[in-house]
Amino acid sequence: MDNRRFLLIALLGVVLFFLYQAWQKDYARPAAALAAAASSEEIPAAQTGEVPSAVQAPGAEDTPAPAAPLSAPASAGERLVVVTDRLRAEIALDGGDLRRLDLLGYPVSKQQPDQPLTLLDDRGASYFVLQSGLGGAREPVVSHLSRYTAASRELRLAPGENEVVASLEARGPAGETVIKRYRFRRDSYQVALEHEVLNSAAEPLLFSPYTRLVRRPSAAADSVPFVPTFLGVGFYEQKDGGEGYRFRKIALADLPEETLDRSQPGGWLAVMQHYFIAAILPPGGEPQRYSAKPARDGNLQSQVLGPAVTVAPGARATVATELYLGPKLQTRIDAVAPGLELTVDYGILTPISEPLFWVLNWLYEQVGNWGWAIVLLTLLVKALFYKLSEAQYRSMAKMKHFAPRIQEIKDRYGDDRERLSKAMMDLYKKEGFNPLAGCWPLLVQMPVFFALYWVFLESVELRQADWLLWINDLTAPDPYYVLPVLYGLSMWAMQKLSGQNATLDPMQQRIMNIMPIALTAFFAFFPSGLVLYWLVSNLVSIAQQAYITRKIEREGFGQKKPA
Predict the structure, then answer these.
(1) How many CB atoms are located within 10 Å of the residue 32 CB?
(2) What is the SS3 assignment for 359-374?
(3) Angle at CA 367, nearest 5°, toward 361 and 369?
(4) I need a labelling partner for 469 at 20 to 30 A (CA). Which of 10, 290, 413, 522 fits?
(5) Residue 329 in 3-state DSSP?
(6) What does residue 279 show for φ and ψ, rounded to 5 degrees?
(7) Helices (H) and strands (E) in the chain, counts
């Protein structure tokens, strides 16, 4: 296989990669199938015995008796609104649920700069709420169906304050007093959720706190068109034998077959979507029961059930858990909880993608613009691989120079593969070049290209980032298709400069001629930051190729390069 044929296969591989990504987004089993596999669900009881530690298959657990519906309806106007410098939250007094959460500073789109993105919402098709309560031995102390009261209807983080606390109060079935608190902090997407219980009964009180995220199986509003992104559950799972933890994720569409029901100390549970997560971060120590499965009403339920707590008559007890509700900021989430940074999922290319993002972020801090940071990163990558590119372009230039002789050999020996191969090897040996020398540099660079693809796809820092002129969102397609067209022209120019069609058969030539047009059409729907990277890479490649070609022309094609 000569160098041109290898380049053709590599380009086809890129196209197939993007086709597979699009297929994953458009033809994976729809999440609506969750409703058909829904199982019964009830308010959890306190943990009083052994808890399963392995994942169970659907239907393996006993089906509990029908209970109250999973999602309690909200009452219009009965809400406590909390506003900080980062969040705007709505807490329903019916249930004490966190029913709406707006991320201030993250507009829903460039066209709506004053409308913040809503992560949690109980209105419309994107139902996604956080529920909590205290499951009792026989009946819940309080649940997401309980009625709470609050002293005010609006709280704001005042200048100079570092925290604002939303307090709600409810009564248990035996007269217990329960105070639920949400602690919102300045410049933070972390929220502390507390339940304080005063047992005024004559008998000890037993309960287990539960926190759950309930989501309707619908796509996230912030997904990028034609680009596959993950929507589902993330779980920081203890390894078998208790030696450390690992990150596990279950796509929302896979939940009917791959449910989660496990007890372990430590870890966390999150519902993940493109750029953003809602995570439950329970305290370490005693085992927590983690579960994720479809619920009876067709929603996705992800829940953490805490260990049992006993409160003596007349005594108080407080249980708490942490929440992270916001963007997957790579400079922040690693300090929130161990392993939470893994929700920025670069896949098998993480060892390459993470340092590339670090460099990209450092460049952004220097120039203050993500677009120019991408340009500079592209130049650094091309400089890093210059020697490999030189070997590639030397091989391509010599193949172009000797194309007439190669064609003459093909015409002479026709279908006699053995004699054709021998004649070609004699030519390569005589003229001092190896066509495969251009293959390996390209092969080495491909993991870097795909790692950068995942960096641009997964980094919320690039979301709605400006570059210049009309490119005001590097994660959205170019609205005027200028970058994709320039990319196609640059690819066509590379083909002409290399003369790569000269040694291909007619069918391969037609494919190569169509390739710039096909990739232009593909890239028209890709984030402009990705297209910018490939365009700059192509322009630098053209300059390198022209320089190296002139250099070896001065050296003489028929001379071996001095050692």
Answers:
(1) 11
(2) HHHHHHHHHCCHHHHH
(3) 75
(4) 522
(5) coil
(6) -120, 140
(7) 11, 19
Helix-, strand-, coil-residue percentages of the chain, each rounded to 5: 35, 25, 35
Beta sheet of 190-198, edge-to-edge order: 163-171, 177-185, 190-198, 316-327, 276-281, 269-273, 232-238, 245-251
pLDDT for residue 225: 55
Give the sign of the dihedral formed by CA 110, CA 112, CA 115, CA 119: negative
Cα–Cα distance measured from residue 291 to residue 268, given in angstroms and rounded to the nearest whole number: 11
What DSSP string describes 435-470? GGGGHHHHHHHHHHHHHHHHHHHH-GGGTT---STT
pLDDT of residue 57: 30
Residue 381: band (very low, low, confident or very high) from pLDDT cuts 50, 70, 90:
confident
DSSP 8-class letter at 205: E
Instruction: Provide mean pLDDT across the span 384-398.
Output: 73
Lowest-confidence segment of 58-72, 131-145, 368-382 by average pLDDT: 58-72
Model pLDDT, residue 81 = 96
Q: How far apart are CA 78 and CA 230, in angstroms?
A: 34
- Distances, alpha carbon 279 to alpha carbons 119, 129, 323, 333, in Å: 12, 12, 6, 11
pLDDT for 438: 54
- Kindly report the average pLDDT of the chain as a whole number: 80
Q: How far is CA 490 from CA 75, 152, 385, 518, 532, in A?
A: 58, 62, 19, 13, 12
pLDDT at 222: 58
Give the Cα separation of 347 and 336 in Å (integer).
21
How far is the C-alpha of 111 from the C-alpha of 479, rounded, in Å? 12
C-alpha closest to that of 227 among 525, 531, 533: 525
- pLDDT of the residue at 180: 97
